[in-house]
Write a structure and sequence with these properties.
- The structure is a single chain.
- The protein is built from five helices and three strands, in the order ααβββααα.
- The protein is mainly α and 120 residues long.
């Protein structure tokens, strides 16, 4: 929730209900097939309007897929593989761990800089 607002500004959803419904339905099928509904997150899937190929996940169930990735996919199975991969990152808490590590590193950097300033 901390970063979701900023992410939606940086990666705005495209205004295409057909594409949004398509990726949401695909993601929901993947979540159901793996018994992940509300376990422990409520997953949501959004197509975003940026000019490059990518998909990424935020902690707690949010998956972003870029429109160019959908256009580039040669099959629904290929796209589902990418979406499933992102769900796997959420399930394994990879993004949450990276964000926590970055936050700790930022905090440590500040402490070292302050300590160096005091010593100087």
């Amino acid at each position: 929730q901390e970063v979701l607002g900023q992410m939606r500004k940086d990666y705005p959803p495209i205004n295409n209900p057909t594409m949004q419904n398509y990726i949401s339905a695909m993601g929901s099928r993947i979540v159901r097939a793996n018994n992940l509904e509300s376990n422990p997150y409520n997953y949501n899937f959004t197509v975003v309007g940026v000019p490059y190929v990518n998909a990424f996940a935020l902690p707690a169930g949010t998956v972003f897929v870029t429109a160019p990735l959908i256009a580039m996919s040669e099959s629904e199975a290929e796209l589902a593989g990418v979406v499933g991969h992102e769900v796997g990152h959420i399930k394994a808490r990879h993004t949450a761990q990276r964000m926590d590590k970055a936050k700790k590193a930022e905090s440590s950097s500040w402490k070292y800089a302050a300590g160096g300033g005091l010593l100087g």
